[in-house]
Design brief:
There is one protein chain. The protein is an alpha/beta fold and 407 residues long. It has 3 domains: 132 residues, Rossmann fold (3-Layer(aba) Sandwich); 139 residues, Argininosuccinate synthetase, chain A, domain 2 (Alpha-Beta Complex), CATH 3.90.1260.10; 29 residues, no CATH class. Helix content is 41%, strand content 19%. The longest helix has 27 residues. The strands form 3 sheets. It has a 5-stranded parallel sheet, sandwiched between helices.
Length: 407
């Protein structure tokens, strides 16, 4: 039996690797994705080799550009946030991982894929919905739903009993469960399990506190083409380069921290803390460039799509026909979303201080408070208001008559 495993090289997935070998007598193919998590991924190769995986069955791939270009950018064209706050940093990475697991399973003629997501979280749903959408007959092995290794102690005992190398690092281990990619880093567990406990200052890794940010503001000019950032301060950049740069600049200015309680798809509430400096900048800037380039009704209709679109991504339906349908409409709306947005970053704040576009619908001659030289006849507003008030006046008159009859 051949199994493609989403493998980080850490303790949990190394235990899963050995468990697959022992329980299923499986020939394991490992897949490790570099999504910009700021950690070395190459050590996973040495760990897999040590675990008996042959070199030709070890796949370590740099997916940063594909991740931002094909997943993050399309999502930000919709100004996507879940439950009013969350920028979906973990959620949007899962469909790409699912896609590569399925592709590698086909390339190796594997019998199944496997992942290390637990039976309590959203990620099991995201991985598996994605896999089934792309390969309907795929077999999926989810060890956390099968084995009886429910505690850290039992995992450590299994590792010792089955010759799984454990790195003994010096220093205090982080109490948080963390997940990172180019879009964000998330923190769960530990003291965050009490929603009234403030995240400790030492937890944050990507950003300085707003109090410690520079006393001088940082300005950014972001250039847009068809809804995507293509240059920063006049320097052309690839999608991954844009997000990397904005993370660095935003983090240095204390931008992008978030502490929320969210509703998981599996039914429970979960408290998490997030750092999304680049994504926070992208969201603010994209809304700014749309404000001058989108027609009012297109903008409002597009905004009405967003909560459903965000829910689809959060719940694991990236590869669904309804998400693809919404994406076509969203992308169509971006044809003229071109121009430059100027931002001011200062101690955790993102201010839009300028926007310009050759496709701008903003007409200074009409919008001015000064003499508009006849571009707009203010007297026309009276008829506009009376027509819109007709139903309100009719209703008020009816209620007034009904009330007098009661007297």
């Amino acid at each position: 039996m051949k199994v493609v495993l989403a493998y980080s090289g850490g303790l949990d997935t190394s235990i899963i690797l050995r468990w697959l070998q022992k329980t299923y007598d499986a020939e394991v193919i490992t897949f490790t994705a570099d999504l910009g998590q700021r950690e070395e991924v190459e050590p996973a190769r040495a760990k897999a080799l040590e675990m008996g995986v042959p070199e030709e069955h070890i796949h370590i791939e740099d997916l940063r550009e594909e991740f931002v270009r094909d997943f993050v950018y399309p999502m930000f064209r919709a100004n996507t946030i879940y439950e009013g706050e969350y920028l979906l940093g973990t959620s949007i990475a899962r469909p790409l991982i699912a896609k590569r697991l399925v592709e590698l399973a086909a390339a190796h003629d594997a019998d199944a894929i496997s992942h290390g997501a637990t039976g309590k979280g959203n990620d099991q749903v995201r991985f598996e919905l994605g896999a089934y959408a792309l390969s309907p007959d795929i077999r999926i092995i989810a060890p956390w739903r099968e084995w009886d290794l429910g505690s850290r102690e039992s995992l450590m005992r299994y590792a010792a009993e089955h010759d799984i190398p454990i790195e003994m690092k010096r220093g205090k281990k982080s109490p948080f469960s963390m997940d990172a990619n180019l879009l964000h880093i998330s923190y769960e567990g530990g003291p965050l399990e009490d929603p009234f406990t403030e995240p400790p200052a030492e937890m944050w890794r990507w950003s300085v506190s707003p109090e410690m940010a520079p006393d001088e503001a940082t300005y950014l000019d972001l250039t847009y083409e068809r809804g995507d950032i293509v240059a920063v301060d006049g320097v052309a950049m690839t999608p991954a380069e844009v997000l990397t740069h904005l993370n660095d600049v935003g983090g240095a200015n204390g931008v992008g921290r978030l502490d929320i309680v969210e509703n998981r798809f599996v039914g429970m509430k979960s408290r998490g803390a997030y750092e999304t400096p680049g994504g926070s900048i992208m969201l603010r800037a994209h809304r700014a460039i749309e404000s001058i380039t989108l027609d009012r009704e297109v903008a409002h209709l597009k905004d009405s799509f967003m909560p459903k679109y965000a829910e689809l991504i959060y719940n694991g339906f990236w590869w669904s026909p309804e998400r693809e349908m919404l994406q076509v409409a969203i992308d169509h709306s971006q044809q003229h979303v071109n121009g430059v947005v100027r931002l001011r970053l200062y101690k955790g704040n993102i201010e839009v201080v300028g926007r310009k576009s050759d496709d701008s619908l903003f007409d200074e001659l009409i919008a001015t408070f000064e003499d508009d030289a006849g571009a707009y006849d203010q007297a026309d507003a009276e008829g506009f208001i009376k027509l819109n008030a007709l139903r309100l006046r009719t209703l008020a008159s009816k209620r007034s008559r009904d009330g007098s009859d009661d007297g």
